[in-house]
């Protein structure tokens, strides 16, 4: 029988063995538990920190569940933008949709100023308050212009 001190010393001296043992025996169980809907891990997005791969996976699984369960696409995109703004450490994000009115191509806001702490109702822009950019004006229009593609 090996005592705890000897085992700890062995693991300290052999970090590759410890990593391979963990990956082989515990990682599949952890991923299986994350996939189980009853034991969902909550990722702390209250303050910025480097996400582990498990936390990133949980965010992606959460987004996939949201897209699957939610029929309102704006809400799904909003949740995606909230998570992305946290993961990218972006100050804020906005969604501009391409459309044509009377043959004139333009970009119009659907979601504006999304941060990791935003509420959907605050960011959804009603049609009478949207910001509209012609495609031939400014940086935003230049980037979205089909001529660039």
Structural account:
The protein is an alpha+beta fold and 149 residues long. Helix content is 49%, strand content 15%. The protein contains 7 helices and 3 strands. It has helices spanning 4-13, 15-25, 27-35, 53-69, 73-87, 120-123, 138-144; strands at 93-101, 104-114, 132-134. The chain has a 3-stranded antiparallel β-sheet. α4 (53-69) runs antiparallel to α5. The longest helix is centred in the middle third of the chain and has 17 residues, at 53-69. It comes from Dissostichus eleginoides (Patagonian toothfish). This is Rod cGMP-specific 3'5'-cyclic phosphodiesterase subunit alpha.
Strand and helix layout:
Blueprint: H1 4-13, H2 15-25, H3 27-35, H4 53-69, H5 73-87, E1 93-101, E2 104-114, H6 120-123, E3 132-134, H7 138-144
Antiparallel strand pairs: 1-2, 2-3
Protein name: Rod cGMP-specific 3'5'-cyclic phosphodiesterase subunit alpha
């Amino acid at each position: 029988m090996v005592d705890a001190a000897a085992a700890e010393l062995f693991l300290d001296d052999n970090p590759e063995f410890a990593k391979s043992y963990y990956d082989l025996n515990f990682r599949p169980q952890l991923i299986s538990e994350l996939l189980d809907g009853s034991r969902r891990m909550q990722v702390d997005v209250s303050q910025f920190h480097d996400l582990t791969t498990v936390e990133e996976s949980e965010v992606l699984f959460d987004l996939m569940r949201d897209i699957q369960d939610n029929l309102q696409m704006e809400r799904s995109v909003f949740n995606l933008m909230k998570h992305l703004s946290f993961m990218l450490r972006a100050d804020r994000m906005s969604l501009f949709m391409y459309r044509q009115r009377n043959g004139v191509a333009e970009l119009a806001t659907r979601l504006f100023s999304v941060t990791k702490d935003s509420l959907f109702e605050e960011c959804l822009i009603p049609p009478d308050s949207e910001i509209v950019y012609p495609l031939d004006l400014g940086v935003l229009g230049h980037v979205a212009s089909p001529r660039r593609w």
